[in-house]
Amino acid sequence: MQNTARTLHRALFCAGLLAATLSAGPTRAAPPDPIVGVWEQVDEDGDVGALIALKERGGTIEGVIVKLFPAPGEPPNPVCSACLGALHNAPLLGLTVVDGLRRTKERYEGGSILDPDTGETYQLTAVLAAGNRSLQVHAYRGVSLLGRTQQWRRAANQPRS
């Protein structure tokens, strides 16, 4: 009889545990950060030079060149000839150009951006605009006022988040 009571107790415990697990419903992953996605890097003339994929990695945002749009006469597979160290002559396609960007209340900051034309790295802030369809990317050294801002556009068929 004691064995039967234990078995019944275990069965009820397992049934209760199963019911609690099933009633909790499926767990949902946190929605992606609104900055995550593919962005068109637009130059001063309004031409798209590259597509940059921004993604979360280790609690920060990083950006990799996923497509290039070389101007006529430019090499089809350019390398970072101006970069130093391990990045010297690294192919631009697949190159990490944004690193360490962190979200604050109204913007992203604390990151860096690599200019493959010069091999220089700059401090970076970014602000989403136009319903998350535009990204104001501001690169600077030391004093933010002395920097330069580009407007990047979310690439076609990308969610707004």
From TrEMBL:
Lineage: Bacteria, Pseudomonadati, Pseudomonadota, Alphaproteobacteria, Hyphomicrobiales
Database matches in InterPro entries: DUF2147
Protein name, as recorded: DUF2147 domain-containing protein
Pfam families tied to this protein: DUF2147
Organism of origin: Alsobacter metallidurans
Claim: Cytoplasm is one of the keywords in the record: no
Keywords attached to this entry: Signal
Record keyword Hydrolase present: no
The DUF2147 domain, residue ranges: 37-154
UniProt signal peptide: 1-29
Stretches of the chain forming a coiled coil according to its record: none
